[in-house]
Amino acid sequence: MPTGLIILIAITALVYFGLLQRVLDRMHLTDQEALFFLALMILGAYINIPLWRRPTLVINVGGGLVPIVLTGYIMSRVGTQREWSRAIVATVITAVSIYAAGRLLPAEPGTMILDPTYLYAVIGGTVAYLSGRSRRGAFIGGMLGVILSDIAHFVRLLVLKLPGRTVIGGAGAYDTVILSGMLAVALAEIVGETREKLAGGSREEAFEHRLRGIEINNDTKDGKEGDWRE
User: Fold this and answer.
1) Residue 72, CA distances (Å) to 76, 141, 159, 221 in order
2) Same structural domain for residues 225 and 113?
């Protein structure tokens, strides 16, 4: 069984038993929403959709399509313009880092200490955390960065008219997408928690408390004055 699937199943169990509630709150996802997307990613791992014939381009549902929808859903709910910008920057930087690593590092079997799937995931997760800054930005950069690097590989084949096959978020890239996104969130959570405790508070939490206060005020005004927004 692919490593990405094992990790997703483990995360599904943690979500089901309520052990990742704090992380989900930061992502503004409910348990039900998280379980829904996790199920789609697990089942979608076995579904590929052809997009282009020559060179061949295919997108995997679980490792390509669902992560794109998930990250867009998260940002559409809570993303500010500043956070959107950071997430985009994190995605581009992560994609460039992974693509460059794929071009520069030796590809022959046995020449790398760490399997490329895990190496690219480590690079992607670390770069996404450092450039994304927030937990949501890191998660989005980690997942979409890998997907964007796959797209860049396809564009290269297309422009140079080279034969080849690109599976966005599929094959080994499925594991890389999952591991990169989860590692980015884990780093953001561990380092973020440590820094917040040392600083005596969380800017991100303060922002989210303010956001919830605005939502409550909006709901109150909706009841009195109709559809009102800040």
Assistant:
1) 6, 12, 28, 28
2) no
- Residue 20's φ and ψ, nearest 5 degrees, are -120, 25
pLDDT tens sequence across 76-117: 876 688 888 999 999 999 999 999 998 887 655 556 677 888
Q: What are phi and psi of 105, to 5 degrees?
A: -80, 150
Give CA–CA dist 26/222, Å, rounded.
25
Residues 154 and 209 grouped into a single domain:
no
CA distances from residue 185 to 110, 124, 181 in whole angstroms, order as listed? 30, 11, 6
Give CA separation, 115 vs 46, 77, 124, in Å: 22, 36, 14
Q: Which helix (H) or strand (E) holds 59?
A: strand 56-60
pTM for this model (two decimals): 0.83
Same domain, 184 and 83: yes
Same domain, 195 and 208: no
Q: How many domains does the chain have?
A: 2
Range of the domain at 117: 3-199
